[in-house]
Each structure stands twice: as C-alpha cells, then as structure tokens.
Amino acid sequence: QVQLVESGGGLVQTGGSLRLSCALSGRTFSSTNMGWFRQAIGKEREFVASIRADGRSTAYADSVKGRFTISRDTAKTTVTLQMNNLKPEDTAVYYCAADSSPFWTSAMSSRERQYEWWGQGTQITVSS
Fold this sequence. Notes:
The strands form two sheets. Strands 2, 4, 5, 6, 9, 10 and 11 form a seven-stranded mixed beta sheet that branches. Strands 1-3-8-7 form a four-stranded antiparallel beta sheet, with no helix packed on it. The chain has 128 residues and is mainly beta. The model has no long low-confidence stretch (mean pLDDT 97). The longest helix is centred in the C-terminal third of the chain and has 4 residues, at 106-109. 3% of the residues lie in helices and 48% in strands.
C-alpha cells in the first residue's frame, strides 16, 4: 500500500521560510516521480513543483519560481519543498503526490491526473 505522509506545515510571516517534507512508503522511491500541489480556500488545486524520479529534472509554477525549491533524498525516500520569501498568496493546503509513470515531462508533471497517490495535505498560512 502506497502512503505519502507530509510534514512541516505551519504559520509564518511574510518573507519567512518553511520546509515541507513528504515521505513515501510502499513503493520504490527511485522509480517514482513526485510533485507538490496546493489548494487555497475557494480555489482549485494548482500545481506548485515537481521532480523526476531520478532527480535530474524539475518543474515549477511561475508563481513560485525563484522562491521554492523541490528536492529528493533517495536514502530517506523523501521529497522536500523549501519555500523562501513566502507571501500571503502562498497560503493554502499543500499536497504531496506520487506518479508511477516511466515518462516525465514538465507539462505532464503539472497535471493532477498524472498522479496516482496523494498525501493528506498540510496547511501553510502566511500572515501579512
């Protein structure tokens, strides 16, 4: 059974930083593409960042480029989202997702339907 467990959410002031982690179990991490999505109140879930199974390619939403960094640690079977210079508009529930496809493109990785497994979500609140 594949499970994704997120951690690291919380409350931070504008301009602050947070690090989200997502641990994958039940599946070979090195063959799993990973992504982060977020959903603000009253809005649809949107793509944030993704990383290919081998860690050699990443993709970011325009709204987070230059501020967020996605990375993965095979030994810990964990994907991390480092978020810097946070803004109030980053407030949302953040979801980790996993994709078993042997193929990866930035376009594919930004689509919700590409992912088979999802974490429970963790709340990020950025105060102004």
